Amino acid sequence: MLKTYGDVRKLIEKDQLAWAPLTRNLDADALPTYSLGGDAAGIPKAKSVKKLAFKTLLGPSLNPQLTVRRVELGMLSAAAAKKALAYSKDIVLPKAAPKLAGAPTGGTPARAAAVDWRRRWGRNWITTVRDQNPCAACWAFAGVALVEAMMSIECAYWARLSEGDIHKGVGSPCANGNNMGTVSDWIRDHGVADPGCFAWTTANVAYTPTPDRDGRSVRAPAFQYIGSIEDQKIWIDSVGPLVTWLNVYQDFSGAGSGVYRRSTSPTNLARGGHFMLVVGYDDALGAWLCKNSWGTGFGANGYVWLAYGDSNVDDYAKCGLRGINPDPWTKRRLHNGNLYESGNGALHRNLEVVGSGPSGVVTPRWREGGAPWTWSAAPGFANDAAVCPTLTGTTYSRNLEIVYSTTGHRLHHWWRAGGGGNWNDGGVFGPADSVGPVGFCQGDYGAPGNFEVVVARSPGVLQHCWRDGAGWHLGAVFGSNVAVGGASLVQGQYGTPHGNLEYVATLRSGCMQHFWRSAADLIWRPGLLFGAGVSSPPVMIQGQFGMADEAGHGNLELCVAVGGHVEHWWRADNGDGQWRRSAIFGSQVAAAAGLCQGSYGMNLELVVLRTDRQLQHYWRDGAGWHAGPVIGPA
């Protein structure tokens, strides 16, 4: 029986294995006994799974770079990819599928010799390493890691999801393991929620998620089984990571640098089954790159290279996932104004827009999430909108909700069920002198979270309002010399236990001012002044640029109309906190009306109100800002 790192080193030397335990541990240090819990029941044997027909299975990906990769692999025609990438000005398609060196014969795609999703196409796609100990819950951790990875790869969203939601949702105590079929069924039937809905805990507690779980759960289909090693590598190259089962031996707890191969010594006893996330492979090393759930103290910062075929890792099929449908809670900082990317449509990424005409009627419009990218209009409603409404998706059953300033200088709230249907009148509220666009978001006070609103009042001040289960309430009045407010209210990530509220307004001096409110004392404070010659309302989001993983803080992104053009500003929330102007673009622009960072390759999407009262779409990819179609009358 292995007890110390010294025991492991002796086995490595005896068996001439090409890996080394963690160098920071002394030979006398005890070998950790990490928790397992992986039951292979329900997973088919690898040899029993039919070879995948990738050309039939995979079309264009939601990820533009993967669409190009599928063309390179011969899975997708360049014509089909060009149609899917109609407005990706920064993506270059190959003229034909290239013949890669060492490409296999017989029509098998010429996959890459090595893939690492932690550093692909210049960025990381994998969330941080977690720690399941002291609980036999590897199955929940591996399943959540897969959903988080595919959220990042398919939808360009960083998400922190809860292993506890699955673990306690299926009623599994820490002493018991479980299988991947249980995880797949739970995610297919219930989705997986964030930690604020139900957090991970090793305590034996009842499953009591917040009442708005439906609106803060990522939805996904059941897992797909991939059998052969070659198919598994092609899947990792062309789709994303896979969950794998393995048989853990004692020396695996001491794995560090190099490719792990278990010692065959009779003293190296088998401990049981375990699940990990395979985030890459390397044929030169002959190994899978695996993200474990034993914390960053294991292996190489929580990862391990596991030799092909070792520890029964390739005996069973591996589990993959496609078709993620993100939740409103994950996206709550990524949109503002009259533009929102909903989970509607076949690809779960329709753009939703609301405008207001001269008669005060609110007109909803939407654009499908794929080619041919056409905009459509729905019947109008209401008759008192003075400005473009501010639109958001909420955790109330994934409802769409709007608030706008009325022609009578009040605030009006409407909502529509997440599955569609008519818009419902939520009532009039607020001060009697409201003017201009409204800052509107759902925060994390309570569950479902309170609605937060900031609007300018005609004396040149700003009014904060909020709604809980008892209705709407008037909050603090703050600011001075305000010319116009904006759809620029965001609950950011600074501050505990609740993030600060961030807001930007345009002052009578022609500059913009950033305001913020700390959850600690609920006092609004003036921040930096920036910009010049501004008379229109700004629109602002907290995006995901600047985030290396789900634990980071994304930049604040702001657009505002100045002199008939749009100015784009940003603030590095992980940097010096200064506002910087990055671009001036567009023409005939009266106001920036809606901004979001959607799931299409991390593009910024913008809707502007033109001087002719038409709404127009712009977007930004890696090649810069581009003018899109005129959507229709505001």
SSE map:
Blueprint: H1 5-15, E1 19-20, E2 38-39, H2 54-57, H3 64-72, H4 78-84, E3 114-116, H5 138-155, H6 163-169, E4 178-179, H7 180-190, E5 192-193, E6 217-218, E7 224-226, H8 229-238, E8 242-249, E9 257-260, E10 270-282, E11 287-291, E12 303-307, E13 318-320, E14 335-337, E15 339-341, E16 351-356, E17 362-367, E18 375-377, E19 390-393, E20 400-405, E21 411-416, E22 423-429, E23 434-442, E24 451-457, E25 461-468, E26 471-478, E27 482-484, E28 490-491, E29 501-507, E30 512-517, E31 524-530, E32 539-542, E33 556-562, E34 565-571, E35 579-585, E36 589-597, E37 604-610, E38 614-621, E39 624-633
Parallel strand pairs: 2-4, 9-12
Antiparallel strand pairs: 1-9, 3-10, 5-6, 7-13, 8-10, 10-11, 11-12, 14-36, 15-16, 16-17, 17-18, 19-20, 20-21, 21-22, 23-24, 24-25, 25-26, 27-29, 28-29, 29-30, 30-31, 32-33, 33-34, 34-35, 36-37, 37-38, 38-39
Helix pairs in contact: 5-6
Describe the structure.
- This protein is mainly beta and 634 residues long.
- It folds into 2 domains: 5-49 and 114-320, Alpha-Beta Complex (Cathepsin B, Chain A); 335-633, Fucose-specific lectin (Neuraminidase), CATH 2.120.10.
- The chain has 8 helices and 39 strands.
- The protein is elongated and about 85 Å long.
Main traits of this protein?
634 residues; Cathepsin B, Chain A; Neuraminidase; 2 domains; 7-stranded mixed beta sheet; 5-stranded antiparallel beta sheet; 8 helices; 34% strand; elongated
Radius of gyration: 26 Å
Total strands: the figure is 39
For the biggest sheet, the summary is: 7 strands, mixed
SS-derived structural category: mainly beta
Helix content: 10-25%
The CATH architecture name of the largest domain reads 6 Propeller
Number of H/I helices? 8
Under CATH, the topology of the largest domain is which?
Neuraminidase
| CATH secondary-structure class of the largest domain | Mainly Beta
